[in-house]
Design goal:
There is one protein chain. The protein is an alpha/beta fold. Among the domains are: 132 residues, 3-Layer(aba) Sandwich (Rossmann fold), CATH 3.40.50; 181 residues, NAD(P)-binding Rossmann-like Domain (Rossmann fold, 3-Layer(aba) Sandwich), CATH 3.40.50.720. 44% of the residues lie in helices and 15% in strands. Strand 10, helix 10 and strand 11 form a beta-alpha-beta unit. It catalyses: L-glutamate + NADP(+) + H2O = 2-oxoglutarate + NH4(+) + NADPH + H(+). Belongs to the Glu/Leu/Phe/Val dehydrogenases family.
Length: 458
């Protein structure tokens, strides 16, 4: 019996990776990697601290802050900071564990980590959020640095919060260093960073579509269901539209926005949603908009769109973890969905992944094809890595340069997953290779080899 408290999210992430490795030929070819798996499952360091700050009424408030520095074999710890009331050690360990292998798949020199606090920005004034950011960084600055640990934003941490934390870091350390990514464009940030996760997701799925169709199809004319309405969902929607797709849904924690006309959700509506998110308002505000209210239906009570969108070709869960369950996975297949890729981390429950993988094996080329977040949403951290490179060289690349590099990284990531799956999990004739197996094995193998070379296991 373990002496550790249960950590459901982390245990789910670990079992998903471990089961893939065990069901491949990896351990037959490299039995020593079983030891590497045990070692890599334990963070190198977990930092927990209190954050005290004063609200607008002059009352003292206290929150818990965390930084999980999981693995630095490939480079400085790299992963976002999340400010949300659900933040706990299990969630941050799951996110940090996924981040290790996601970062490995980018091909850049980055380790894996994650952090944040159980602070809820909703209902707080700008001044209160700023004071919390300063108080949070007053402790975190001791544990991070451009060659040690480089956090970024995540849920509840936008470029505005990154700015306040960067200012606090600079004041505490008395130096300018590229210690956070997602910075403002005129003080060290990279162009395309806000768009990168959503754009990269679409680039990855574009390669899936082209491979599956023998180069005959693209996003053009595809009906695409998306969850979430934040940064990832917005830019995935805009890029997919640019490539000719029809966007049929967005969502938030309260419910789902379903398009009711043949044009689907338009760029104007995405920009309207982006403005709502900046103001920390819900999608229900759209029901009061005379311009848009007749172009969609809003389904409340926390409903997700998967069973409400009708026929769909592509599904992109882009909100948070575990947003597609077994029943919804089966409904997506019934609705004709051919591609599903996670814009969020661990967006599908394990039961849902098993439904997708079973269909992939049984229906072969006529099945749904699943891509895990550690590969499909790696574009965000990839451009964070490019931001680190620009900071180190004191350079600033154009948007076109960064976008081309992002496209190259996502193409290489897809091919790596594809070829690794073919090598370690042979598919039957006419069957798509397992991208989840390919991603897990490729990312893990790279990290395990680096750990071995550095003496972390032998």
């Amino acid at each position: 019996m373990s002496n550790l408290p249960p950590e459901a999210e982390f245990e789910q992430a670990y079992k998903e990776l471990a089961s893939t490795l065990e069901n491949s030929s990896l351990f037959e070819k490299h039995p020593e990697y079983k030891t590497a798996l045990k070692v890599s499952a334990i963070p190198e360091r977990v930092i927990q601290f209190r954050v005290t700050w004063e609200d607008d009424k002059g009352q003292l408030q206290v929150n818990r802050g965390f930084r999980v520095q999981f693995n630095s074999a490939l480079g400085p710890y790299k992963g976002g900071l999340r400010f949300h009331p659900t933040v706990n050690l299990s969630i941050l360990k799951f996110l940090g564990f996924e981040q290790i292998f996601k970062n490995a798949l980018t091909g850049l020199s980055m380790g894996g980590g994650k952090g944040g606090a159980d602070f809820d920005p909703k209902g707080k004034s700008d001044n209160e959020i700023r004071k919390f950011c300063v108080a949070f960084m007053r402790e975190l600055h001791r544990h991070i640095g451009p060659d040690t640990d480089v956090p970024a934003g995540d849920i509840g941490v936008s470029p505005r919060e990154i700015g306040w934390m960067f200012g606090a870091y600079r004041a505490e350390e008395n130096r300018w260093a590229g210690v956070l990514t997602g910075k403002g464009g005129n003080w060290g940030g990279s162009l395309i960073r806000p768009e990168a996760t959503g754009y990269g997701l679409v680039y990855y799925v574009q390669h899936m579509i082209q491979y599956a169709s023998g180069g005959k199809e693209s996003f053009k004319g595809k009906r695409v269901a998306i969850t979430g309405s934040g940064n990832v969902a917005q830019y995935a929607a805009l890029k997919a539209m640019e490539l000719g797709a029809i966007i049929v849904s967005l969502s938030d924690s309260k419910g789902s926005l379903i398009a009711t006309d043949e044009k689907g959700i338009t760029p104007d509506l995405v920009h309207y949603v982006a403005d709502l998110k900046v103001k920390r308002k819900q999608l229900t505000e759209l029901s009061e908009s005379s311009e848009y209210k007749n172009k969609f239906k809003y389904i409340g009570d926390g409903a997700r769109p998967w069973v409400h969108v009708g026929k769909v070709d592509v599904a992109l869960p882009s909100a948070t973890q575990n947003e597609v369950n077994k029943e919804e996975a089966e409904k997506l297949i019934e609705a004709g969905c051919k591609f599903i890729a996670e814009g969020s981390n661990m967006g599908c429950e394990q039961d849902a992944i098993e439904v997708f993988e079973k269909a992939r094996k049984e229906k072969k080329g006529d099945s749904i094809w699943y891509a895990p977040g550690k590969a499909a949403n790696a574009g965000g951290v990839a451009v964070s890595g490019l931001e680190m490179a620009q900071n180190s060289a004191r350079l600033k690349w154009s948007a076109e340069e960064v976008d081309e590099k992002l496209k190259g990284i996502m193409e290489a990531c897809f091919k790596n997953c594809l070829e690794t799956a073919k090598e370690f999990v042979p598919a039957a004739e006419g069957e798509y290779p397992s991208l989840v197996a390919g991603a897990n094995i490729a990312g893990f193998s790279k990290v395990a080899a680096a750990m071995h070379d550095q003496g972390d296991w032998w």
